[in-house]
Structures are given as structure tokens and as C-alpha cells.
UniProtKB/TrEMBL annotation:
Gene3D superfamilies: Vaccinia Virus protein VP39. It comes from Gaetbulibacter jejuensis. It comes from the Bacteria. This is Methyltransferase domain-containing protein. Residues 125-216 form the Methyltransferase domain. Pfam families: Methyltransf_25 (PF13649). InterPro entries: Methyltransf_25, SAM-dependent_MTases_sf.
Amino acid sequence: MFDNMKSNFTRTIAKHIGNVLVFLRPKKAQELSENRITLVHKNKNNLSFQERLMRFALVQKLETLDDHNKIAEQNKTFWINESATELFTETKDSINTFFIPHCTFIFDLLKQEISNQDQEIDTLVEIGTGNGSILNHLSTEFPNFKKLIGIDLSANQIEINKKKYKQNTKLEFVTSDAYDWIKKNGKKNTVFVTYNGVLEYFLEQQLQELLIEINKLKNIFFVSIEPNGASHDFDKDPNTQLYGDEPSFSHNYPKLFKNAGFTLWHFSQIQLEGESKQTFIGAKN
């Protein structure tokens, strides 16, 4: 609500009232701001009006970070720790509110791409599987796949997923760093998927190395649905930029995939609310 206000006057008033509430309710303020990423992505629908004002004021106070290595380290620490589970819980409905209405088109295109080649694709790997809802949904979209593997840094969330989806025997959930797992377990005839904020936490060089490692495998398809900074023009500025209050990395995904040796079969973007847009990449080797 407050993040998208266009009136500077309205934002100033909201920030002032929020600061007063932060002063009057220090315990709630501490709870809201316990972690930077959780604060930025807090599900505002679960907050009272006063709490939303407090959150808005707290976000405005976040220190500006520009050290890429420090940012990547802090972000990885967040996703490993228990606090990530709270965010995964709050975003569990995104499959219905965003994924199905806005993202399924690229998987229809993927089906066409797969049908045009001779070798059978039998495995799907989701990097950054989170609460597992996307992986579970894709198991119904691709019934011929023998195995769908969800990788995530959060050991707590992986254990939750194993229990929640134990009836779906095609699903496998693994706690691991993506690069390490792929280097050891990656195989040909696989679709790799990322959705809504995974690759944006990789340093540019780390992401390039990951894509190069994946490209070493044979008969690979990759579907990447990742946010970018709204003002990031890949033609004018081909390099990675920082964006948002976390902050995250706005990567030039077409460039990085092509540099790794992939061919793009799809590229598009849609504008989101606030300071980001969603980028859709379909790639193969």
C-alpha cells in the first residue's frame, strides 16, 4: 500500500506516523524488523493498519548497501536460517495469485520445445524450491517426468516439504547449495527451473559459473522466472545492478545464459508494482 504511494506528501505523513508508532510500540517494531529480507517482503495483508505504517517507516530507515560480496553473504545467511521458513509460509499463495495467471504460459512453450527433440526429458530440478508448491504443480503439468527434485538452502523448509508432499512419490527434496548439488548429481535430459527470486541472490560471477556448470550437461532446458529492477535496461547497461531495499541483484539474464553457451528460445518481461519487473527466460543447450 504505502510502498506504491506516488504523493511525496502522503509518504512523508505515513513515515512520520510510522516513526511515532515505532517509538510507542518498540516490541512490535523489533518483531517487524528482526530481519531485513523479512521486513521488505512481509505479507502486508497479515498486518494491521498501524503495523503497515510501522513497517513502511522501518523500511525507509534501512541502511544503503552497495558491497556486493557483503550483500550476497547476508542474503545466503538469511535463506539458510529458520527465518526463511516464515517467508515461505507467507508466500504460499503466490502460486494462485501470480504463478498460474502470469507464468504458466512459458511452461506451455517449454512443452512445445521438448516435443521438437528426440531425446526424452525425464527429470526436472527446481533451484530454490521454497515451500515446494511450484514443484508439486509442475509434477501434474509434466506427468511423464520420472523425478522432480527441489533444492533449497533451508533445511527446515526441506523437512516441511518432505512431510507435506510425501504422497507425491515423484517429488524429492534436498538441502544443498545449487552449484554443489549440480556438480555432483547433475545429469543430462533435465529441465532446470527457478521462480520469483532465486538467481537474484547470486553474485554475477557465481551465477555465471552455475550456468556454465549446468551447460556441461547434455540436452538441458532451463526456465527462469526472475525479477529485475524496473529501470534496468539490458541494452544500455548490460552489467548487474543492485535494486530494491534488500537489496538484490538485477542480472542481465539473456547475456549470462548466452555467455554460458545456452540458446534462448524465449525472452520477455512484464512490469510489476513498485521497483521491479518480471523476466522470463527459456534456454536450452
